[in-house]
Design a protein that fits this description.
Largest sheet: 7 strands, parallel
Radius of gyration: 19 Å
Number of strands: 13
Structural class: alpha/beta
Strand content: 15-25%
Strand order of the largest sheet: 3-2-1-4-5-6-11
Order of helices and strands: EHEHEHEHHEHEEHEEEHEEHEHH
CATH architecture of the domain at 10-189 and 223-251 and 290-308: 3-Layer(aba) Sandwich
C-alpha cells in the first residue's frame, strides 16, 4: 500500500501528456493530490494521452498547455506548487541522431527553466526524471547509482547534462531536488518508439506478415508503467531522502530483446517470422547492450519495488492494443493512433 501523504498536496507534473506522465497523473489523483498537469502546446488543441483518461480523473486536474522551453511560462506554472515532478522531455533515441539540438533545448534548457522556477518559488521538493540510458552499456551489473555516466546517444548526453544541472542546483542553491532513473518502462499508451509496443503491434496487425526488429541481443530491465508511476509517487514524499542524489527504479531482472519477442509471439498467438533489419538497429558504438538495475538505494528509502511480473504486464499491454485495434484507432501496417 502506497503512502497517502500526497493527500491535499499541490503537485505539478510536467510531461503529463506523455506515456508515463499520464499514468502518474492518474496515480496522484487517486492518492488525493491536487494535480496541475502540463501538456505540450499544439495548435490542434490536443493534450496527448490526457485526452484518453476517464473524465472522472481528468476533471480532477488543472491541465495547462505550454512549452517547457519558455522560462517565463514555466515560472508561472510552478508558482503555488508544493511538489514538482519533472517528466517533460524529448525521449525518442533515433530522432536524437537527426535533431540533437532540439534535445538540448528541451532536456537541458527546459530542465534549467524548471529548476530556476523551483528555486524562485521555494518548492518543497522537485523530482527530476532521468533514464537508465545515461549509464550506457554496463561496465558492471547490476548497475548502481555509482556507475559512470556514458553518453552513447545525443539523447542520453542531453539527459546527463540535465542530471548534472539538477545536482548543481542542489549544491549551489540547496534546492531540494532528487533524480529518479527509471529503467525501461512499458505498458498501455506507449508509442512504437519503444521495442515492446512495436513488437505487439506488428504481431497483432493482420496486414503485417513479417515482424521487423533491430538487434535481438541487448538486455533490458523492463518495468510495468504502474510500477514506475508508483516510484514517482513514493519518492515525492519519502521522508529519509538525500537531495542531489540519483535513485534507480528497476526490477533487477534482465531479459534479451529476443526473449521478449518470443514472449509476445506466444502471448499474442501469432505465428509470424521475426526479421532483424538494419534500419531498426542503432549505430554499433551507440547501442546500449545491457541495462540491469540495482534499486536497493530507492528501496531502502521507500517501500517501492517492482510488483508486476513481465509476462503479466505484457499481457495487460497486449489487451490494450487489442482494444485499440477493435476501436479502429490503429492504422494497420503503420501502428499510428488515429
Amino acid at each position: 500500500m502506497l503512502s497517502k501523504s500526497l493527500q491535499g498536496k499541490s503537485v505539478l507534473v510536467t510531461g503529463a501528456d506523455g506515456f508515463i506522465g499520464s499514468h502518474l497523473c492518474e496515480t496522484l489523483v487517486g492518492q488525493g493530490a491536487n494535480v496541475r498537469a502540463l501538456s505540450a502546446y499544439t495548435s490542434f488543441g490536443t493534450r496527448g494521452w490526457l485526452d484518453m483518461l476517464e473524465p472522472c480523473i481528468l476533471n480532477e486536474m488543472d491541465v495547462i498547455s505550454g512549452d517547457i522551453r519558455d522560462s517565463h511560462f514555466v515560472d508561472r506554472l510552478v508558482e503555488g506548487q508544493s511538489i514538482v515532478l519533472h517528466l517533460a522531455a524529448l525521449i525518442a533515441i533515433p530522432y536524437s541522431y537527426v535533431a540533437p539540438q532540439s534535445y538540448v533545448d528541451v532536456n537541458v534548457t527546459g530542465t534549467l527553466n524548471v529548476l530556476e522556477a523551483c528555486r524562485r518559488h521555494s518548492i518543497e521538493r522537485m523530482v527530476h526524471t532521468s533514464t537508465s540510458e545515461v549509464y550506457g552499456t554496463a561496465l558492471f551489473t547490476p548497475i548502481t547509482e555509482a556507475h559512470p555516466l556514458q553518453g552513447q546517444s545525443p539523447y542520453s548526453a542531453s539527459k546527463i547534462g540535465a542530471d548534472y544541472m539538477v545536482q548543481a542546483y542542489h549544491r549551489s542553491f540547496d534546492l531540494p531536488a532528487v533524480i529518479l532513473r527509471p529503467f525501461n518502462t512499458y505498458g498501455p499508451r506507449q508509442s512504437e518508439r519503444a521495442v515492446i509496443p512495436t513488437l505487439i503491434r506488428q504481431y497483432l496487425d493482420p496486414d503485417c506478415p513479417v515482424v521487423e526488429i533491430g538487434d535481438l541481443s541487448p538486455i533490458r530491465d523492463f518495468n510495468y508503467v504502474q510500477d514506475t508511476a508508483d516510484a514517482f509517487a513514493e519518492i515525492a514524499v519519502a521522508g529519509d531522502i538525500s537531495y542531489g542524489q540519483a535513485y534507480n527504479a528497476g526490477s533487477g531482472r534482465g531479459v534479451t530483446i529476443g526473449d521478449v519477442a518470443e514472449m509476445i509471439r506466444t502471448l499474442t498467438g501469432a505465428n509470424k517470422p521475426l526479421k532483424s533489419t538494419a534500419d531498426r538497429t542503432r549505430p554499433v558504438k551507440s547501442e546500449v547492450f545491457e541495462l540491469l538495475a540495482d534499486s536497493n538505494l530507492l528501496s531502502s528509502k521507500t517501500t517501492w519495488r517492482t510488483r508486476t511480473p513481465l509476462n503479466s504486464g505484457i499481457e495487460k499491454t497486449i489487451e490494450w492494443w487489442r482494444e485499440e485495434f477493435t476501436k479502429g484507432r490503429i492504422r494497420q501496417s503503420s501502428g499510428y493512433l488515429i
